[in-house]
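Instructor's aside before we start: the two examples that follow are unrelated to each other. I chose them only because their records fit on one page, so don't look for a connection. First example below.
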Amino acid sequence: MEFTISSSVVWFLFALVSLGALVLVIIGLLRVNETLNILKGILHRNESNIDESLKSMPKILNNVEEITKEINGEMKSIKEAFRNIDETTEYTASAMQIVSEDILEPIKDVLDIISVVKDVVGRPKKKGIFKSK
């Protein structure tokens, strides 16, 4: 079984495929046009808002820049305050260690001595069963 296609049939099939592709391109372009018209309407309705936003943009950026500078300054102050707190904490810890070593330990030693002396001297004699001569 032999089958041959003439050149006119090939041209006809090529024309159908081309026509289908052309229809798809036209449908795509119509949808793009419809989308662009919708966007144009949105822009037209909001033109005054967009203009106002664009006009206020430099002021907003200036405010952001000022706030950023202010925050940077405050962060430096906070950093310095934390450094001071750290130094004060170290100084306080050192002072407490000195108080402990130089004052509390000698007082504890004195109290220990007083306790020993009290135990030795101030003990009342117990009356026992056996009397000592």
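Example two begins here.
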Amino acid sequence: ATPYTPPTTTTIFGDEDLTIAQTLIKMRSEKAKEKGVAFRDMEEPPRLTRSTTTLQPLSTIDPKDKDKGVLVEEEPEKLQKVKRMDQGLAQIESEADLAQKIYEEELAELDRAQKERQKQEKATIAALTEEFDEIQARMDVDHELVVRMTHEEQEMYTIKEMARLLAEYFERRKKQLAAEKAEA
């Protein structure tokens, strides 16, 4: 009785159940080991190592020993190490310079934006002050006009009232004189 596995997995390698994608990746790495080539995943950053390990096939291969190789350690040249380190340092320095330049540009942009905002605020305050002064001047003129008209109306009312009172007086006096003439 063989164990049942879902159709999306396979047990070719026996160590674990793998999906089809994982199986293809594992087969690719196994095939690469046969040829002495190592693939590196693009997701992982490259690591600096002191020695490189590769598989080299034996010069005499027995048919039973197919796909086996000898483990050989190779020391990379020290010049390449220095160059890699120098390149890394140079890259770090250039990135730091670029970051500093971007930072300074952003600070300059921020300062410019703040100065522009302050200039706009001053212009707005000046415009509002000017408008307030105009409105206040209109209000003062209107107030003076109302006061003057009130005095004129009071004077006119007084004159009209005096004329009315005088007219009433003359009317009463005429009636009195007419009454006196009628009696005499």
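The beta strands are 9-10, 18-19, 52-57, 69-74.
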